[in-house]
Amino acid sequence: MLAGRTLFTISNCIKEVMIYAINIIGLILSSLILVANQSSLYRTKTLLDTIFGAAGNMQQTIEAVIQGFLKIRDILQPYDRQTSELLNQATNQMRKDLILIQNFVEEARHASNRAMKAVYTANLVFVTANLVVLVTGSVILFLHWHHGFIFLIVVCWILTTVCWILTGFDFFFHVFARDTCAAFEDFEQNQNSKNNGIMSILSSCSNLSASDKFMAQIGYTVHKYIAESNSEITSLAFKMIQPNDQSDDSFMIQKICDPFSVPPNYTYAPANCQQDAIQIHDLPSILSTLTCEKNTPLETCKAEGRFFPESKYGKTMAYIKSVEQLISTYPDLQSLAGCMSLKHAIADVALHQCKPFRASVKLLWACILTLSIDLMILTLFWVIKAFQVKRRHFSLCSVVPRNNEQNL
Q1: What are the angstrom distances between the C-alpha of 228 and each of 83, 218, 231, 321?
Q2: Which 3 state secondary structure label does DSSP give 278?
Q3: Do 8 and 405 form a contact (C-beta atoms < 8 A)?
Q4: Can you give the residue ranges of every domain in the chain?
Q5: What letters, b where the CB count within 10 A reaches 16 and e where it falls short, cover 332-353?
Q6: Digitized pLDDT (tens) for each residue of the chain, 408 residues in all
Q7: For 384-406, b where at least 16 C-beta lie within 10 A, e where not — what string?
């Protein structure tokens, strides 16, 4: 009889120790979930800020290009209505595209923030409730309160169900993080988004040949204009100034700086200009000193080296200012054509942010999955303990039933 009671007491102690152990494991897992939840929130927010920040920079670049084109349009309008109309159509289309991009970014930002906060809040509320229940369960186990065990069984069953639901959500979050980072890394390595739906927004950016061709066309236009201007200036100088007049050689030697390289690429390289070349931004002041006014005698203009006719001054100045504005806008245009802002952001995400982002999300999912299993086992032990307490009446803080204590 005594051996049976002793065996029962040992068995009861083992069960309670196991319940305490499972409780402690649940507390540890809940703490890890809190850490992983906070880490995943921070990593997700950093990643989204990087992408949406790049999209914001792209919007600013588009706006800068639009303003540059509008200035060129206004300059050329009195002299070249066809080009002005083309620029007007281009800026209108860019404004429509800019509005579409702004709307898409705002909607995506709002949806991403809402989803991110929903996942974070759901995990936080659940873990907080779970911590309270686990601590309460330890107290009820210590007191051997039968009605408390019934309460724990119901609450643990509810928490287990919610935990499995959150496990599913966090699993999808984990898969989404894995696939998104895989898409970013694939784009960074191959610069090819045609086979990936997530990165389809960058399909035009990955088409390097198209953007290079577009920029080469702009470079060719400026290169051609400067070459024609140099040829015309030299021709006018020869007409006004005799070739044997050595004092005026400077007018024939100095050329306008062409900041674009030789064909076929026409790459923008302002540092390649010769030291004695005339810079584009210096042309207005130089041209005014070389212009022969219509009321000034031809011989006087020739003596002073003023070989440029006033009749061509206005139109020439308009083209000079438009070219100057185009060159000023060119870096923004080049960045926009190559989607540099987005590519740099994707490179940063792929090389520096994806690994910790995936690790934090995977840790969150693994911890909440383990906690779900832990809660299932704990609920089963609570059921066993409740039946045991119902059959045998325990004193508070005791592992031995009252009827056994009385027999002793």
Answers
A1: 18, 16, 5, 16
A2: strand
A3: no
A4: 2-205+339-407, 208-337
A5: bbbbbbbbbbbbebbebbbeeb
A6: 444 445 445 556 776 778 888 889 999 999 999 999 999 999 999 999 998 888 888 888 889 988 988 988 888 888 888 888 888 888 888 888 888 888 888 888 898 889 899 999 999 999 999 999 988 888 877 777 767 778 888 898 999 999 999 999 999 999 989 988 888 888 777 765 444 444 555 555 555 555 667 677 777 777 777 777 777 777 766 665 555 544 444 444 467 777 776 676 777 777 777 777 777 778 788 778 778 887 777 777 777 777 777 777 788 888 888 888 888 888 888 888 777 888 888 889 988 999 999 999 999 999 999 999 999 998 888 888 777 766 655 444 444 444 444 444
A7: ebbebbeeeebeeeeebbeebee
On whether the CB atoms of residues 241 and 302 are closer than 8 A, the answer is: yes
Cβ distance 205 to 341 under 8 Å? no
Q: With b meaning 16 or more CB within 10 Å and e meaning fewer, what string describes 57-88?
A: bbbebbebbbebbebbbebbeeebeeebeebe
